[in-house]
Amino acid sequence: MDLRKLKTLIDLVADSTIAELEVTEGDSKVRIVKTPAPGSQPMQYMQMPMQMQAAPPAVAAPVAPADNKPIAIEGNVVKSPMVGTFYRAPGPEKASYVEVGSVVKSAEPICIIEAMKLLNEIEAGFDGTIKEILVENGQPVEFGQPLFIID
Q1: Contact 104, 127 (CB under 8 A)
Q2: What is the pLDDT tens value at each position of the chain, 151 positions in all?
Q3: CA–CA separation, 139 vs 77, rounded Å?
Q4: pLDDT tens digits, residue range 130-140?
């Protein structure tokens, strides 16, 4: 792939809302990843082996507590079953599924995670009361990330 074509692809990604672009041409494979703007939420990317890479992926380092002791969580933890975007309500103008203090049943939906343009209802998994909501509405979540604590 020639440098003019590569420069055009980089400009395309930079000027659009696309976060990532991968192009394969013959034996060449190029993956262009747009790094987040300063002050925005960092995103994690898994690097794949390839011949050329236009920009290194941004990787957020986990922040350890100041005293280096693990944080004790009391209660049942509902974790994200997938990578996606967390939503507390079924729609922008609709009420949240649950609030702190809500009583839930194990099969009751408590949030939505949008992954690849699909809305996935996440069930509580436990009977009890919502003790804490650990994620903000519209925030990206990782697989296994704690979302709720249920007493």
Answers
A1: yes
A2: 677 777 787 887 788 777 777 888 777 787 787 776 555 555 555 555 544 444 555 555 455 454 544 556 678 899 999 999 999 998 888 999 999 999 999 999 999 999 888 899 999 999 999 999 999 999 999 999 999 999 8
A3: 18
A4: 999 999 999 99
| Closest alpha carbon to 80 in 114, 103, 117, 57 | 114
| CATH code of the region 76-150 | 2.40.50.100
Q: Kindly report the number of other CB atoms within 10 A of residue 94's CB atom.
A: 10
Question: How far is Cα 122 from Cα 143, in angstroms, rounded to an integer?
Answer: 13
The string over 24-47, giving b where at least 16 C-beta atoms fall within 10 Å of a residue's C-beta and e elsewhere, is eeeeebbbbbbeeeeeeeebeeee
The single-letter DSSP state of residue 144 is T
CA distances 117 to 21, 56, 85, 102, 120, Å, are 17, 26, 10, 28, 10
Nearest to 150 by CA among 107, 112, 101: 101
Give me the residue spans of the domains in the chain. 3-53, 76-150
